[in-house]
Specification:
There is one protein chain. The protein is an alpha/beta fold. It has one domain: TIM Barrel (Alpha-Beta Barrel). Helices cover 42% and strands 16% of the residues. It contains 12 helices and 8 strands. It has an 8-stranded parallel β-barrel with strand order 1-2-3-4-5-6-7-8, surrounded by 8 helices. Helix 2 links the parallel strand 1 and strand 2. Helix 2 packs parallel to helix 3. It starts with 6 loop residues before the first helix and ends with a helix.
């Protein structure tokens, strides 16, 4: 039995648009609810949400029956974190603040078994192999791992072409808020100067044969990124969906 097909990676390789959403409530129950919404992919956020390896695992379990593909965002691109995320069953990893080709290449190695990479061959006790029931996991896993790197500051933009030249990087995700802050616009991703940098980056990613991705949290921003050619696009954040809807509901009925 081989490693499961990564349908999200396949869709990106075939140029299909993938619409997703952020999952930041750090709870299996909430993740399961999000899995019923119909998104192509969901980001389980380990950078800004209060997640640890066990809560990431629990949300992967909660999404197992969903057609929404789970993407695990790590807090930072440490090799040991990549290994843990893969062993708990993540097939797609999103790594923030990638600033160089060397960093991207090390992440590729962390996602890959020897002799080409450094992923530890301890699959017998891992959820990824369903605890040794996926007999051919090790020889087939590498082809099903999808690595997405985030470029979200001036250093990353300067190194973008070198990052794009690294085999094994499947997509590059632009972080608009961090990029805007680093460019001196206080997190205002809508500034024309920031939008120009984003548009150029998305075009370069696509031209290099990689999948361009980004997050939009307003309809105007989201449509703009689609028009720029974003292929995998997150269109909301569960925390904001809950907070904004709840506040609007309270305001509406308290005004009666």
């Amino acid at each position: 039995m081989a490693a499961p097909l990564n349908s999200f990676k396949q869709a990106l390789a075939e140029g299909e648009r993938q619409i997703g959403c952020w999952v930041g409530l750090a709870d299996g129950y909430a993740a399961e609810i999000m899995g019923t919404a119909g998104f192509d992919w969901l980001v389980i956020d380990g950078e800004h949400a209060p997640n640890d390896i066990r809560s990431l695992r629990d949300q992967l379990i909660a999404l197992q029956a969903s057609d929404s593909h789970p993407v695990v965002r790590l807090p930072v691109g440490e090799t040991w974190m990549v290994k843990q995320a893969l062993d708990i069953g993540a097939q797609t990893i999103l790594v923030p603040m990638v600033e160089s080709a060397e960093q991207a290449a090390e992440l590729v190695r962390a996602c890959t078994y020897p002799p080409h990479g450094t992923r530890g061959v301890g699959a017998a006790l891992a959820r990824a192999t369903q605890y040794s029931s996926v007999s051919d996991y090790i020889p087939t896993a590498d082809a099903q791992i999808c690595l997405l790197v985030q470029v979200e500051n001036r250093a990353g933009i300067a190194a973008l072409d070198d990052i794009l030249a690294i085999d094994g990087v499947d997509g590059v995700f632009i972080g608009p808020a961090d990029l805007a802050a680093d460019l001196g616009y206080g997190g205002n991703a809508g500034a024309p100067e920031v939008q120009a940098v984003i548009a150029d980056a998305l075009a370069r990613i696509k031209a290099a044969g990689k999948a361009p991705g980004i997050l939009g949290v307003t309809e105007q921003a989201t449509q703009g990124y689609l028009d720029m050619g974003a292929q995998f696009l997150a269109v909301g954040i569960d925390v904001l969906i809950l907070a904004q809807t709840a506040r609007a509901l309270a305001k509406h009925w308290k005004a009666k």
